[in-house]
Amino acid sequence: MRLSGLRSTLQDRRTPVPPSAPSTVPSSAPSSVPRQARVPAPGHPSAAPAASASDPLTPQQIALLRASVAAVSPQAGELTVYFYAILFARYPAVRELFPVDLDVQRDRLLRGLLRIVDLVDDPDNLVRFCTHLGRDHRKFGALSGHYPAVGECLLASLERYAGPAWTPELAQIWTTAYGLVAQVMSKAAEDDALLGPAVWYAEITRHVHRGHGIAEITVQPETPYPYLAGQYASMETPWAPRAWRYYSPAHAPRPDGSLTFHVRAVHGGQVSPALVEQAAAGDMVRLGPAQGGMTLDPDSGRPLVCVAGGTGLAPIRALVEHAARTGSERQTNVFVGARTAMQLYGLDDMLRMSQRHHWLSVRAAVSDERIAGLEGTLPQVLAEFGPWYRHEAYLSGPVDMVTQAAYTLLRQGVPQQRIHHDPFDVPALEAALLPRRMAAHLAAG
């Protein structure tokens, strides 16, 4: 879709702030939604949260918060459906902020709640996580006035599905917790607005099919797009408005400002199939701000071990290219994995890079074929060539692979703080699952 079409399809959406008095629920809303929703009075358990960053939760309150999440988890799917139903019924104006298909969005809500609850006793990382969310939500058109509406409907949903476990004390705990989150997110968005735009328009200048449902797509942003090697960007296309997906540039920043992404078409996906099969030079997309902490520490001289599965090779390649440009010459071991030898995407390119740089070693792993020297899953091959306790580790690919590789590295003595990963389904939120999975692995080990 060309520029003129994109401007109307992917326009900057300035959705009105929800009104102080909600509208009547439409007749098409689920029967379980109250016919007339009222804004809760201050002090009511489901009132819009208001809290100060100076109001920490006690250990007992944190325990109650986590217990309430455990109580509603068997009905998590129903809870998110109900949440969005009452949110759109009470505040119809916010519907324009969300994609038509809400399946991914519901999943993101759950993961976000999990992550916040995981971090509720870790204030520094909680603030860091919510700051990233606040900045990223600018691209949706979210405004500070939307947060009370979301909080009101979230607490109403929790109250409905927690049943007898929901008490005035628990309501106040959730009110305080959400108020802190909303405060940090809102402030982060306001600060970020002073530094740069919420989105960048970019034109596709090159589209190359690489087989196995993968395309390399190069875009040229209209204005400079700031990012660091190893970070990722969210992308919105004209074929699926408001549906944002995350892709990582496969290189360090270029002088001309262009970006190349590796995109695999996901069966049944809303965004990637169109990018791979329909997109062409001249089409326009929008990019959200760069995110992710999987970047090289310029002050560290530790050797590197990098593990990449599928198109997760993109950020790993960017890190290697950045290391080559800066002349660091840190010993770097890269492991590239796939199910079959034919699916070892990008291996030849990495091998050519290893021929140019004596400090770079590249190895492949194939899990579903018996090939001498290549057989095994990435975590298996990683364990075989270890130990890695002196290394800085960077992992990118499917969540299960990242989890297993991280577990292998931990068992070999690599500290958690030196294991970097940005899962790419829903990066910041997908990571919510990793601490739980890691704990399960360690307990089983």
TrEMBL record:
Q: Which family is annotated?
A: Belongs to the globin family. In the C-terminal section; belongs to the flavoprotein pyridine nucleotide cytochrome reductase family.
> Sorted alphabetically, which keywords does the UniProt record give?
2Fe-2S, Heme, Iron, Iron-sulfur, Metal-binding, NAD, NADP, Oxygen transport, Transport
**Looking at the keywords, is Lipoprotein present?**
no
State its cofactor.
heme b
Domain (Globin) ranges: 56-190
Q: Quick one: where's region Disordered?
A: 1-54
Matching entries from Gene3D superfamilies are given as:
Globins, Nucleotide-binding domain of ferredoxin-NADP reductase (FNR) module, Translation factors
Q: Which residues form the FAD-binding FR-type domain?
A: 197-297
Q: Where is the composition biased (Low complexity)?
A: 22-54
Q: List the InterPro entries.
A: Cbr1-like_FAD-bd_dom (IPR008333), FAD-bd_FR_type (IPR017927), FNR_nucleotide-bd (IPR039261), Globin (IPR000971), Globin-like_sf (IPR009050), Globin/Proto (IPR012292), OxRdtase_FAD/NAD-bd (IPR001433), Riboflavin_synthase-like_b-brl (IPR017938)
Q: What is its EC number?
A: 1.14.12.17
What does the record give as the reaction this protein catalyses?
Answer: 2 nitric oxide + NADPH + 2 O2 = 2 nitrate + NADP(+) + H(+); 2 nitric oxide + NADH + 2 O2 = 2 nitrate + NAD(+) + H(+)
What's the protein name? nitric oxide dioxygenase
Q: What PANTHER family does this protein map onto?
A: FLAVOHEMOPROTEIN
EC class (word): oxidoreductase
Lineage summary:
Bacteria, Bacillati, Actinomycetota, Actinomycetes, Kitasatosporales
